[in-house]
Specification:
55% of the residues lie in helices and 13% in strands. It is an alpha/beta fold. The chain folds into three domains: 104 residues, Nucleotidyltransferase, domain 5, CATH 3.30.420; 88 residues; 126 residues, no CATH class. It has a five-stranded mixed β-sheet with strand order 3-2-1-4-5. Strands 6-7 form a two-stranded antiparallel ribbon. The longest helix is centred in the middle third of the chain and has 35 residues. The radius of gyration is 25 Å and the shape is globular. 28% of the residues are buried.
Length: 339
Amino acid sequence: MKLYAGIDLHSNNNFIGIINEQDQRLFQKRLPNRIEEVLQALEPFRESLEGIVVESTYNWYWIVDGLEKEGYKLSLANPSAIKQYEGLKHTDDKWDSFWLAHMKRLNILPEGYIYPKKERHVRDALRRRLMFVRQRTAHILSFQSDVTRNLGSKMSAREIKKLDEIDADQIFDDPFLSLTSRSHVSVIDFLSDRIKEIEKAVIEHVKIKPEFEILLTMPGIGIILGLTIMLEVGDIGRFPEVGNYSSYCRTVKSEKISNDKKKGKGNQKNGNKYLAWAYVEAANFAIRSYPEVERFYNHKKSKRNGIVAIKALSNKLARVSYYVMRDQVAYDEKKLFRS
């Protein structure tokens, strides 16, 4: 008899539910997050288990890796795509675990992507790099705000990155402004060192795959953004259409329109925020060096504003990069910006 297991995963515990082909509940138990206890609970059902579904929470690595190592068939459930039965008034962890198993049995489970363990930690290192870049930007903007507010002048991000603590101390007469400026410069320098350290380690450890090398022909995409896109995408074949990819990259609007009227929004957080950032970065870099890209940006900006223009450009880059990766063809400016 075929059996199906669902695991509702939390930060410190998990709930396992196992059903058979007739949806009969054969096992249910809450366990601490220790792989030994999970394996012990599943062992009596090992030979009959057709699949185990784990909810895709932030901490799924340990349980998926542990179960795959023991030879179990794993599926990662995509919580944002799962539709619950609307007639229910009450749900809990037990119900959720059996619902996961039930969807697996019916073959209607919206599955997430189980990223290969070998490259997962390299990808996560680049994600930490992004966090450091954003933190550094926050300090730069705060420094610029102090300069503009108190001196009436402007200082570029490039100028701020060149400062040391002695230079920062001499910008302001007020001791507290000098203190904050030294603090900003100290943190900016520290974060810049960590960013370079991660970049160096990633470049030395992983080489861009042949199917992704062609991304470097695109405007605004260098080696770090190319590696970021490669490691976040994993397998371009998991996106059947360009619309699936651009939606995953969060470059399209999440709106519900009826009779030309806005009726609400979809799940704006559904997708990959790191790819969304990568294509916005590529768009910002591209407008500095590519005249056609700059003209497109300025045209959009004149109609709306700079933010909308950058998002429109990032969507254009995401869509063309899909075809570049899928079809292994070099970037062609004439196809992207047709007159």
